[in-house]
Amino acid sequence: MSKKALITGITGQDGSYLAELLIEKGYEVHGIVRRSSTFNRGRIDHLFSDEQGSGIHTELHYGDLGDGNSLIRILSAVKPDEIYNLAAQSHVAISFDIPEYTGDVTGIGAARLLEAVRSLDLDSKIYQASSSELYGQVRETPQTEDTPFHPRSPYGCAKAYAFYMMQNYRESYGMYAVNGILFNHESPRRGKNFVTRKITYTLAAIVAGKQEKLYLGNLDATRDWGYTKEYVEGMWRMLQQDTPEDYVLATGKMASVRDFLELCLRRCGYTFARQGEGINEKYVDVDTGKTIVEIDERYYRPAEVDLLCGDPSKAKEKLGWEATVHMEGLADIMLESDFAKMGLTLPSTVAA
What is the pTM of this model? Predict the structure, then answer.
């Protein structure tokens, strides 16, 4: 009999890749989706096609992390072996605009899920999507599972609450609950309002003549960027261990937004020059004299997180997990996809 998995946030980037992985492994996959007037299921439509075959079952349930009763109803019906809590208000900058909602869904939503599992006396293993934003104003580099937290956004604070609730229920009730502290992980399915996808999609649109410029904020923020498709494998491996523990998933390599931008500009075939400083900085196409990139102070956060870089040693040792796609390969994967969406071919493709 196949295992049952329940994924919150199944329509998101991580949820869609995780659902594919679990289906490949023979799971019966269930997902929680919110009711809305418009469908937002483009990332998972293919999971319900006639080609799915193999008798594998995928089912969606209406619910919300803000509604404990819906969680109890779904959990009672599904009785999952594994639960992956990926749902959240996940945009860091937007969390400053809607801090109360972010706290309720991203933070307290995890507590509602834990309490629902506990009250139903289910023997489900629970994965919580933690975030490198927990570290915020970092105390050491690289960051490990033992590095102290100092979140710098409502999103980071909400994730910290969820992290400690997972630990608390694990220690208080003996529940199998783990935190995956994932550093930035990107893909062609990333939302267009996240900086890496914003860069690749907008540059493709500029080359296609559908957009004039790319507007960005802090180019010097430094991150640890990996490929989502690899990271969901790490999530799954965390729930296959005998003992529940928390893990960092990262590449262990740092790059700035500027590094990613300039790499993508070169991949697109641009010869560019930087002009100005600070908010007046811009990138100009040397061949045409046109401005490609400008800085817009609206995209700066009230409190910046300058440097995040993870140490994945524990995941490599205990899970056998290691990232193989780094920034260069990731840029190619995303640019190829976005160029294809514009009916174009990336001029300087390098195999990932």
Answer: 0.93
